[in-house]
Amino acid sequence: MRMKISTLFMTSVVILSALLIPTVLAEKHIVVSGTWAWSASDMTSRPAGGNVHYSATEHDVFSGTFTGTGEGPFKMTLHPNGFFTGSGKTVFTGSVDGHSGTCVIMWVGNTKNDMGYWWFKWIIISGTDGLANLRGSGYCWGPGPAGVDMFGKIHFDPS
Asked: Pairing mode, if any, of strands 148-156 and 118-129?
């Protein structure tokens, strides 16, 4: 009887340990907050089919969870009904949650809403140095280049 209780206890400990391993190894999610502001340079435009297509280089300033600067190409289209669509890629250089390095952030968005605000989705696609294992995505909302509010969830994958 004593052997059965001991075996049952040890089996329970092994099963409980196995169930807790994913919790212990799970990445800590970080809630993103802050602002993303930008300006553009080297802008070109061309009309086509009632739209106007723009290409430029964006220069970014991040504050909050992401603190630093960025730069990269973007394209946007002004549609005949007055709203914009756009996409781009910025190479962020700075710090996130105490880790420094660079990461590439891709975004896609539009101004198709009643307020004419920019809304866009962003995702981290790669990183270097302290940001090499940074993963996550989110969205931004706001009046435009002077700054949009940045939201999302990120985490650092285990090495």
From this structure: unpaired
Is pLDDT larger for residue 108 or for residue 116?
108
d(CA 8, CA 139): 50
What does pTM read for this prediction?
A: 0.82
The CA angle 154-31-94, to the nearest 5 degrees, is 60
The encoded tokens of residue 53 equal 């297509």
Query: Domain locations in the chain?
Result: 27-156
In terms of C-beta density within 10 A (0-12 exposed, 13-18 middle, 19 or more buried), how is residue 124 classed? buried
Neighbours of 26 (CB within 10 A): 10
Indicate if the pLDDT at residue 16 is higher than 90.
no
Q: For residues 92 and 130, what is the distance between their CA atoms, to the nearest angstrom?
A: 12
- Token representation of residue 113: 């809403």
d(Cα 152, Cα 158) in Å, to the nearest integer?
20
The pair of structure tokens assigned to 30 is 């970080």
Residue 3 binned pLDDT confidence (cut-offs 50, 70, 90) = low
Cβ atoms within 10 A of the Cβ of 58, count? Answer: 20
Architecture field, domain 27-156? Beta Barrel (2.40)
CA distance 3 to 53: 78
